[in-house]
Amino acid sequence: MTTAPQSPAPVGRDELLTRLERALHTRGRALLTGPAGVGKTEVALAEAARAEARGETVLWLATLPSDREIPGAAAAALVASVAATVTWPGLGTSRPEPPARAVPAAEAHAAGADPATEPYGAAAPGALTSGILTAGVLDSGIFSSGVFDQLPGPQRTAVAMLCREAPIDAGGWDPIALRLGIARILRALTCRGPVLLVVDGVQHIDADSADLLRFALHLAPPSLRVVAVETPEPYAEAHEPYREGHRAEDPHAAHLWVPSEADVLRVPPLHADEIAELLIHHRLPSRMAGRIHRASGGNPRLALAVGRSLADARTPVHHAEALTLSGRARDLARQLLGAAPPAVRETLLLAALALRPSATLVRRAGRPTAEADLAAAERADLVSLSEDGQVTFTAGLLPSTLVHDACWAERSAGHAALAEVVDDPVEAVRHRALATERPDEELAAEVAAAADLARRRGNSALAAELALLAAESTPGRHGTRRISRLVDAAEEAARAARADLAMRAATDLLARDAVPSDRVRARLAVLDTAGQGLTGLDEMYVHAMEDSEGDTALRAAVQLRLAVKYVLADGDPERSRTAAVESAALASSMGDPRLAAQALTVQARMERALGSPDAEAVLAQARGLERAERPLGIRNAAQILTIRHALFDDRLTDARDELNALLPLVQRRGSVEDTIELFSTLAAIESRRGACAAALSHAGQSLALTLEAGLSPGPAWYTLALAETAGGSFARAASYARRSVQASEEEGDRVFLSRSRYALGRVQLITGDVATALETLRRVQADERAQSTVDPSMLRWHEELAEALLAQDAGDEALALLAEVRPVAERLGRSTVLLGCDRAYALCLAAEGRTDEAAELLTRTAESFGRAGLPLERGRALIALARVERRRRRRSAAQTALHEAASVFERAGAAPWLALASETPAGEGAGPGAGVEESVPALSSLTEAELRLARLVGQGASNQEAAAKLYLSVKTVEARLTRIYQKLDVRSRAQLATALRP
């Protein structure tokens, strides 16, 4: 049979696949519809793979645009596919499939496939099209297969004529016989078992085939289910205004059944986070997922094309640079736009040029058919229209391509027309400036004034665009004024987090004869919009240092940016602290309290990381300067760091209250970066407090703002990993942590690379993937030591690594690690870090057989976590206590601890932890052999690592297999088995298997 290949569920389509299966189960029919490239075929492939896994016969019929003009083409392809792929009982021997040529790229493209963006938009591998099947059928003949032996003579004749295996009579084939023949073939096929028929490209089916298939499906039994994949042809019904003599056709003429709301499933675009996952899945850079999502509108085919453009760029594209769009990405946008009639494209160009396009505005600008044009474009999924006629393009690549492909005269005329009809003076000035290519000082001054007005309105993005436009409109003879405006434009872009505009302004300025101070200010603006991606900007730092020579104020500003770079990109907090100290001193000498406060804040952050007792005093000094310099809500870095220090110290109520007071002010007055950091911090606070639903909500807001701003999603994914670990799903937490690792590696962000690895290793440990967790957490240890991080409260990896070491039978190393971190935590007063160490140490005691001491310590630790307001940590300690109590063979005490933990997790809304507490503990968790050590008392002498190995060997694993499964060397397995044999007093694997039986 012709089947879709096995493939994982498409990114972001789990819910859609569930709805598809429900529709097929209840109605037997489903129509997947949506714009080209959105992933309809990929969803159908996934459903076909699931059906095949259930043992169903899967027929895949992929049509071509040319089929529509060939009567019976699709029906003939379906008949031939049955003959070529199904072996019928009673035929003696199965016949091999006829060879089929590969589908050329041109044909695949014509069918809606996109070879450059597999798997989205691709035809199913092995799918049968009318062009392919005819050649194979002529070689072997459909009737030689014996498939149609049971058809009555007239039906066989009609089917043979359809497939061109018999001459067509002058009167053509018998339509009734052909109808009945097709119906009988499909009915006979279902006698073998359930059948799934996938018709990919139902819009290309010719009228004769559509009629035949409608009849056959009408008579088919319920065991034949059908998925039709359709790309609507929006302009088929919209041609009447543009073409005379157009006759409306039956809208259901090409459908195989009259669809209802229940079986029509629209395939939506992917969300920004799903686009990021898609890019990672295809090994493409994910750090610009937000910008790629805006460019593609969530269309997977467009997103992958843009992602490949970035991956294929000769040099890595930085956040502050425009997206590099290859011919492939542009061509895909042109294909989507190319189907539109010329009048629609003209209307869309006007909408692309406008700041706030609406049907009314476009009509007033000279397009009397604007409403009809835009309605047609909306049916084509090029734009969306609100109730009041506001126009939004579905993908940023569409308006940019429209403008890119329009000639200067068309753009100028459009802007001139819009300038006459817009009702906002700021927008009118913008259009007037864009309508002319001749620099004009008077016009440039008007644009600069408009930029100031936009800034006062709070529209920082428009202010940045207008500031740059004012500079570009300044005549060359006013060189000094143009440079001054370019500096203003770069700094305005930095305030608006518009990295692309900052880079444009800086590039223009640096190509001119600007004074060193202006060059430094432009470069600083670019650095301030770089987000986490500072690795590739070394040259900019070097030139900024050179140009700031002799200017104390500028040198202080450059040193501050270097302090940030040293910790983020270089992972060197000591060098960062030195630069911050110098920046603060220079700023203070110049009487600049604002810059001094920023530098002291960075210094305080580094002092904390390095374990210095001066951290809080330096931070208090920074806060004092900050309060005197600016109102709340505007770049309050010192106050935000104060909140984070409270988070590190688990003073969670104080941290939350102060943050909730600051957040609305920052949202109203501050920068998007500060807002993102506050949401991220709030999510971390709520995760520690056990307010799991709130943590997930705040983490989601942080990610949404990050992607919208086009910043690297690495830090936001780390925050989501923490929130998902607390109250969502361990699987999703691991997924977000892996994404954060990849994005941080792409950015060269050492700080968040270490954090995201910690989040990943913690989840791996909790879910029982101990060997992998140990490897991940060892890398965290190496990262943190390379960065000279001393304070254990900033990233609590020590207790997790100790537990992973213990689980891998490295108890001595675990004890050494705890002995190393405990004095530091005591010196710095990190009381809750000590509690985490107590939990890990109690497990070490249990592994040594000192279970009474372990149980007593875990009981105290759980109570202390409860008093500290850390419910999830309390519940985790109780789970550990239950495990120890079972080793002591105190079933009732274990159950009491486990029920108490479940109650804690339920109150917190910690769904994954509640599921963990609901499992029957056995060693490190539930699983095969759970509870064995209680029913076999001798097993309580084994460590958890020994018990895991004993189970594997008892189930028949060889030493090599056990070593591979546990990520150990064969020698380690042999040594561990020797200890197991001694403890259990057994001498062979057979005796070990017997000893493991309850």
Give the arrangement of secondary structure elements.
Blueprint: H1 14-27, E1 29-33, H2 40-53, E2 57-62, H3 73-85, H4 105-110, H5 130-140, H6 153-162, H7 175-190, E3 195-200, H8 207-219, E4 224-230, E5 264-266, H9 272-281, H10 289-296, H11 300-311, H12 327-338, H13 342-353, H14 359-364, H15 370-379, E6 383-385, E7 391-393, H16 397-405, H17 408-421, H18 425-434, H19 441-457, H20 460-472, H21 479-495, H22 499-510, H23 516-528, H24 538-547, H25 552-568, H26 573-589, H27 593-609, H28 615-629, H29 637-648, H30 652-669, H31 672-689, H32 692-709, H33 714-727, H34 730-747, H35 750-766, H36 770-786, H37 797-807, H38 811-828, H39 831-847, H40 851-867, H41 871-887, H42 891-908, H43 911-918, H44 932-935, H45 944-954, H46 959-966, H47 970-984, H48 989-996
Parallel strand pairs: 1-4, 1-5, 2-3, 3-4
Antiparallel strand pairs: 6-7
Helix pairs in contact: 3-5, 3-8, 6-7, 7-8, 9-10, 10-11, 10-32, 11-12, 12-16, 13-15, 13-16, 17-18, 18-19, 19-20, 20-21, 20-22, 21-22, 21-23, 22-23, 23-24, 23-25, 25-26, 25-27, 26-27, 27-28, 28-29, 29-30, 29-31, 30-31, 31-32, 31-33, 32-33, 33-34, 33-35, 34-35, 35-36, 35-37, 36-37, 37-38, 37-39, ...
